[in-house]
C-alpha cells in the first residue's frame, strides 16, 4: 500500500523522500507495538504524536550517526523532533491514512480525528542565529583535525556550504540536487544561483562576490577550473571521498551539523553561552531562517527578501521581521512615560 501511495502523480523526489521517511518511522513504531496499519486506532495516533516529541528509550530510537538501514545500529531518529517537524510527520501520516481509506486498502481512517494540529508558523520566526554565530560557523568550518588531502577537501566544502546556504537562503535539498551550471551569470554580468524549489518551481538568487570567491576556491580545491563551463552537469556539492561524484542529501546535512557542533564547542570555550545555546538547538535549516531574518532586518526591501526566499506570499516573509530586544527596550524606555505636572 505504501509503495502505491508514494507513486501518486505529481510528487517531487523531495516529497517522496520525506513521505517515505515519515512512513518508515511510523511503521517501525507500530510494529514495535505489535501492530500493522490496519490495526491502528485513534489512541495509537495520539500515542505516536506524544512519542515523536521525545522518542524514548533513546538507545532504541535515536542515533546521532546516520547508518544504512541494514546496519543493526540504524535508528529512525537523529534526536528530538522540532515542533514543525512533528507537525510534518503527523501531516504525512494523515495523508497516508486518507489515501489508504479512499483507495479501500483500509476499512477506516482514524487519522481524520487528528484535528487542531497547528504549526508555530503564525508567529515570528525565532529559529535563527545571530550574525556572530554565523561568523563562528565559518571559523568552525576551518577547524579540522588533520592536514590530509581529505581534510583539505572537507574544509573547502564546509566553507562553501556555510556561505552558500546562508548567503542564498537555499533549502537543504535545493543545493543537494543542483549542478555546477546552477551558478552562472546573466547577460549583464551578474551572477545567480538557479534552483529547483518547492513544488518543482524554478527560482534564482543573487550570488554575492564573497560567495563567488568561495565557489572558485572550493572548485579549485577539488582540482577543477575556478569556474564551470556552461554545460557542466557535475553535482554542485561534491563528495570528499572516492571518485568525483555528488554528495548525498544526508552527507551534506551531516557535514553542516558537524560544523554547527564545532561552532557550539568554540562558543562554549569563548564563554559565549547564549550563542552556544542557540547553536545547540540549531538545525541546518536555521541557515535559511538566519539569512532571511538578517536580510529583512537590515533594510533590504521586503519584496526583495520575498523574491530571494522564494516565498509565495509576502506575509510569510513578514514573519522574519524582528525588533532586537535591546533596541526595542531602549526605544520604549526613551519614549513612554507618565509625565507629571511641574510642582508649584
From TrEMBL:
Q: Which GO terms describe its biological process?
A: DNA integration; DNA recombination
Q: Does the keyword DNA-binding apply?
A: yes
Give the Core-binding (CB) domain ranges.
Answer: 1-101
Signal peptide (from-to): none
Which CDD domains did the record assign? DNA_BRE_C
GO MF terms here are: DNA binding
- The Tyr recombinase domain is annotated at 124-334
Record keyword DNA-binding present: yes
- What keywords were assigned to this record? DNA integration, DNA recombination, DNA-binding, Plasmid
Which InterPro entries does the UniProt entry name for this protein?
CB, DNA_brk_join_enz, Integrase-like_cat_sf, Integrase_catalytic, Integrase_recombinase_N, Tyrosine_recombinase_XerCD
Q: Which family does it belong to?
A: Belongs to the 'phage' integrase family.
Q: Please identify the protein, giving its name as recorded.
A: Integrase
